[in-house]
């Protein structure tokens, strides 16, 4: 069994260069690869195209890369929690491609499965469909969407083994599974890394064939994007 574990996040990110396209798992601040994002900020890599459900918040997640002007283009479905994102977008500093959330997920999954394109009704008749092929199926119009083409996919899992098998926890599963194997190289950071063969195969969400590098992360903050609590009686 091939050992895919590397010693730390810096070794995992070897080969990431200016101008690359990178997928990053997570939904809001849930299940984001915190260690990898922090290392990308520290590396100074720039002109990135980032594919992610959202752009984090001003002082955490992808918002940290935006603060340092390291992202050239964001491909996302929701961007409403980041003032710096809004400022850069409205000023023209940041190129933004807004994508329906289901389409975003399917463009990842299609890349994972080696499918170059697919048809979806989402976005037909809107700006989303401008410049794209449309076609009628059974009396309904569809838009052709191409699968993503990314250099690196960086995901976060709860537990993994040295062969790259991954288990996600709760809602932190979100976009992470469909981004595994959807790029040339998939990097997984995990909270707990165990020897190959020790995970229950029935509990594995993503098999190691989709992962090229895996490392154990440290010091997770797991911030809550919008904390809502009930008033005490």
Automatic annotation (TrEMBL):
Keywords: Transferase. PROSITE patterns: COA_TRANSF_1. It comes from the Bacteria. Gene3D superfamilies: Glutaconate Coenzyme A-transferase. GO terms for molecular function: CoA-transferase activity. Pfam families: CoA_trans. The keyword Mitochondrion does not apply. Signal peptide: none annotated. Belongs to the 3-oxoacid CoA-transferase subunit A family. This is 3-oxoacid CoA-transferase subunit A. It comes from Imtechella halotolerans K1.
């Amino acid at each position: 069994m091939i050992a895919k574990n590397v010693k730390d996040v810096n070794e995992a990110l070897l080969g990431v260069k200016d101008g690359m396209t990178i997928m990053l798992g997570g939904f809001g601040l849930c299940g984001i690869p915190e260690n990898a994002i922090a290392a990308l900020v520290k590396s100074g890599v720039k002109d990135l195209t980032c594919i992610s459900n959202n752009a984090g918040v001003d002082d955490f997640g992808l918002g940290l890369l935006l603060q340092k002007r390291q992202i050239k283009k964001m491909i996302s479905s929701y961007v409403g929690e980041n003032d710096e994102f809004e400022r850069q977008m409205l000023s023209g500093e940041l190129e933004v491609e807004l994508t329906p959330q289901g389409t975003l997920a399917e463009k990842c999954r299609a890349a994972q499965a080696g499918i170059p394109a697919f048809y979806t009704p989402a976005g037909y008749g809107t700006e989303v469909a401008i410049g794209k092929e449309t076609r009628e199926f059974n009396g309904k119009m569809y838009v052709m969407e191409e699968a993503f083409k990314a250099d690196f996919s960086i995901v976060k899992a709860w537990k993994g083994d040295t062969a790259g098998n991954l288990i996600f926890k709760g809602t932190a599963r979100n976009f992470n599974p469909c981004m595994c194997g959807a790029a040339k190289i998939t990097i997984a950071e995990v909270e707990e890394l165990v020897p190959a063969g020790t995970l229950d195969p029935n509990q594995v969400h993503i098999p190691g064939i989709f992962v090229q590098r895996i490392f154990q992360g440290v010091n997770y903050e797991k911030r809550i994007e919008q904390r809502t609590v009930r008033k005490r009686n």
